[in-house]
Amino acid sequence: MDEEALAEELRQTIGELVRAVRVVDTMPPGEAAALGFLDRGGPLTTADLAQRRGVTHQSAAKSVKDLIGGGLVRAEPHPGDGRKLLLHITDAGRARLRSERARRAGALDAALRDVFSPEERRRLRDCVALLSRLTAHLAGK
Q: Among residues of the chain, what percentage have pLDDT more than 70?
């Protein structure tokens, strides 16, 4: 397999894996993504969330509205621009995000145990380190 074919197969397989794991999610993907960004990056504006998610401002605003309504995010006036709101994840939002992540990890763990032998899981563990390095490179870290 040449390098281009490897890159395409990896892209396709990882995308399918992510979609398969998300089947266990209990919240819409846009809301889960917004909570993740707020959890990892601290307070953000709706425009920041839209840019990071690669969606329109309107799409991000809908997710934000639903998250605020559910008590998972709170908004306060932006200290540098009173026309904007700064969004913060709440304790309830963090708990919900942890629950979603645990559900995904649990489903993935069960599948790993069903599909792979202990030796294959050890080999996969080595591959995770390689994928982490690749991700860091692509993210410019």
A: 100
How far, rounded to the nearest angstrom, does the alpha carbon of residue 36 sit from its chain's CA centroid? 6
Which tens digits make up the pLDDT trace of 43-83? Answer: 999 999 999 999 999 999 999 999 999 999 999 999 988 88
Give the whole-angstrom CA distance, residue 33 versus residue 45: 14
The whole-model pTM stands at: 0.81
User: How many angstroms separate the CA atoms of 81 and 140, rounded?
Assistant: 30
Give the Cα-Cα-Cα angle 16, 103, 140 (nearest 5 degrees). 55
- Exposed, middle or buried: residue 84 (CB in 10 Å: 0-12, 13-18, 19+)? middle
- For domain 28-99, give the CATH number: 1.10.10.10
Residue 86 near residue 97 (C-beta atoms within 8 A)? no
Contacts of 61 (CB under 8 A, 6+ apart): 46, 50
Closest CA to 87 of 128, 129, 52: 52
Spell out the domain ranges in the chain.
28-99, 112-141
Longest Cα pair distance anywhere in the chain, in angstroms? 57
Tokens representing 134 are 């690749």
